[in-house]
Every structure is written in structure tokens, then in C-alpha cells.
């Protein structure tokens, strides 16, 4: 399955999502590694099989193997961190903020790709998972690395469209069952 096949699998009411996926695949404010990694990390964060297959087929081979692994690693580690840090942020008891997480997250320090690329993919996943604390942390690191608001926004736009496509296909599958 490819990006075109994914768009074809979306129902007519999702025309805006189809158009956004096409536009974002041609987005020029991000270099290809940043852009393709955002698609791949977002697909893995959403976990919808058809979306994962389509976006993996479309983008994984266009990334260096270490970049594809790092995009998947961003989805994996943020899947853990977003839950933990969202809890820390939302819990009424403030003492959790003073406790060490005591969760392994070594890939953040050594992702195998440019640190800004990994941070961008982590931000996209954090947006999907709704962790404000992680969004703020990654956005701060991206700004320090010199990324513009437009580049950061592009990553979140990709995450948004991938998330929407995933939600639509899950909903359609539930109706068909």
C-alpha cells in the first residue's frame, strides 16, 4: 500500500484529509528526512495498520535505515514518555515533579540521527498523544536548534493529518464490523 492507496481507502467525506496528505507529502519547508520521518513516526504513534503499511511503504525506503529506525524509536519512547509526563503534569500532587522518572530513554540522548530530527519526530508524536509537557520540551529544543515556527508547525500538521486518517479508518472498520 502507498500514500495514493491510503488516500483511496479514505471515504469521500474525508476529502480534506486526502488533500492534506498530498500537500504535506510535498511540503518544502522541511527537508526530506525531517518530513518522511514525521510521517513514519506519526504512523507508528497512531498504530492503525493500514496507515502504518501505507506510510511505511511510501517513506521508509526514502530514509536511511538509521533514520527510519530513529523515527520508529521516537514513536516508541514517546509512547511511554507522553503517558508518564502527562500524568506528572496533570496530577494534583506536585511531588511527582520532583521524583526521577526512572524509565529508560537512552535513545533520546543517542538517536543515531541529527538530534533536531529526532526532536521533531518526538514533537509530532507528542502532539498526537496530547502531552503538553513533552510538546513544550521538544519545541524548546527545536527552537534552540534553529528550527523555525513554520518547520515545527509542518511537523504537527503532518501528525494531525496522519492521526485523522488513522481515526477515520478505525471508525470505518468499526462500522463495517
Automatic annotation (TrEMBL):
Its EC number is 1.11.1.28. Signal peptide: none annotated. Gene3D superfamilies: AhpD-like. It catalyses: N(6)-[(R)-dihydrolipoyl]-L-lysyl-[lipoyl-carrier protein] + a hydroperoxide = N(6)-[(R)-lipoyl]-L-lysyl-[lipoyl-carrier protein] + an alcohol + H2O. Transmembrane segments: none annotated. It comes from the Bacteria. It is an enzyme of class 1 (oxidoreductase). One of its GO terms (biological process) is cell redox homeostasis. Disulfide bonds join 131-134. The keyword NAD does not apply. The active site is at residues 131, 134. Residues 96-176 form the Carboxymuconolactone decarboxylase-like domain. Keywords: Antioxidant, Disulfide bond, Oxidoreductase, Peroxidase, Redox-active center. Antioxidant protein with alkyl hydroperoxidase activity. Required for the reduction of the AhpC active site cysteine residues and for the regeneration of the AhpC enzyme activity. HAMAP family: AhpD. This is Alkyl hydroperoxide reductase AhpD. The lineage of its organism: Bacteria, Pseudomonadati, Pseudomonadota, Alphaproteobacteria, Maricaulales.
Amino acid at each position: 500500500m502507498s500514500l495514493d492507496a491510503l488516500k483511496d481507502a479514505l471515504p469521500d467525506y474525508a476529502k480534506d484529509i486526502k488533500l492534506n496528505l498530498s500537500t504535506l507529502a510535498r511540503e518544502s519547508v522541511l527537508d526530506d528526512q525531517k518530513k518522511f520521518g514525521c510521517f513514519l513516526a506519526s504512523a507508528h504513534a497512531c498504530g492503525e495498520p493500514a496507515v502504518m503499511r501505507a506510510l511505511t511503504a511510501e517513506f521508509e525506503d526514502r530514509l536511511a535505515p538509521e533514520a527510519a529506525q530513529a523515527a520508529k524509536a521516537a514513536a516508541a519512547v514517546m509512547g511511554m514518555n507522553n503517558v508518564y509526563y502527562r500524568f506528572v503534569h496533570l496530577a494534583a500532587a506536585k511531588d511527582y515533579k520532583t521524583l526521577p522518572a526512572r524509565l529508560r530513554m537512552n535513545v533520546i540522548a543517542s538517536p543515531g540521527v541529527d538530534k533536531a530530527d529526532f526532536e521533531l519526530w518526538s514533537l509530532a508524536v507528542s502532539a498526537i498523544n496530547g502531552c503538553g509537557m513533552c510538546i513544550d520540551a521538544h519545541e524548546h529544543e527545536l527552537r534552540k536548534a534553529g528550527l523555525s515556527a513554520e518547520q515545527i508547525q509542518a511537523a504537527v500538521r503532518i501528525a494531525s493529518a496522519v492521526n485523522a486518517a488513522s481515526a477515520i479508518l478505525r471508525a470505518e472498520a468499526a462500522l463495517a464490523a
